[in-house]
Amino acid sequence: MKKSIMIGISILSLAALLTLGAWAWFTAEAEATNTFTAGTVKIKLHDGFAGDGIANWNPGDCTDKKIYVKNTGTKKANVRVRLTMAWYDEHGTATGLSTDNVKLGRTGKSWNNGDDGWYYYNNLAPGAKTSCLIKKVRLSGNGTGNEYQGKTFKIKVEAQAIQSSNGAKWSDFPVPEEGDQE
Length: 182
Known about the structure:
Elements: H1 2-22, E1 43-49, E2 62-71, E3 77-88, E4 102-106, E5 112-113, E6 118-124, E7 134-139, E8 152-163
Antiparallel strand pairs: 1-2, 2-7, 3-6, 3-8, 4-7, 5-6
């Protein structure tokens, strides 16, 4: 009798397992992948100038020099450009001679003089270019005496950009240390 009860319980247990395993339930699954690609702030400085430089530059001469910036990134950007001018001797040493006798033909009304050594251009769209900051450089006859003979005048042009969205400020711009610039 014990044996037949054990067999009966075993058969009932097996039947219950088979019955429960045959039941089906409605199910569903979902999955999503979110991709965020950061925009880019990139610029190209266009510094149009005749060859390797002008030889025999004389007081009264006016030379074409077009400076503008193109936004090659994907984000709208604020741009700034700094022009550093100096006269050098034949050894490449800065002379300290005044640069007031060199006149820059500025044409870009959209550029703002920041009075901090930089010229600013705001909200430059991707693919767009700024107006020319300058188009010509003239050596004035007034103020250019014999002390300038044989000297070399150089304009160093630096351009930087920062995104124009979300309150980005120039004060947050990482200024590279001397020697860290490319």
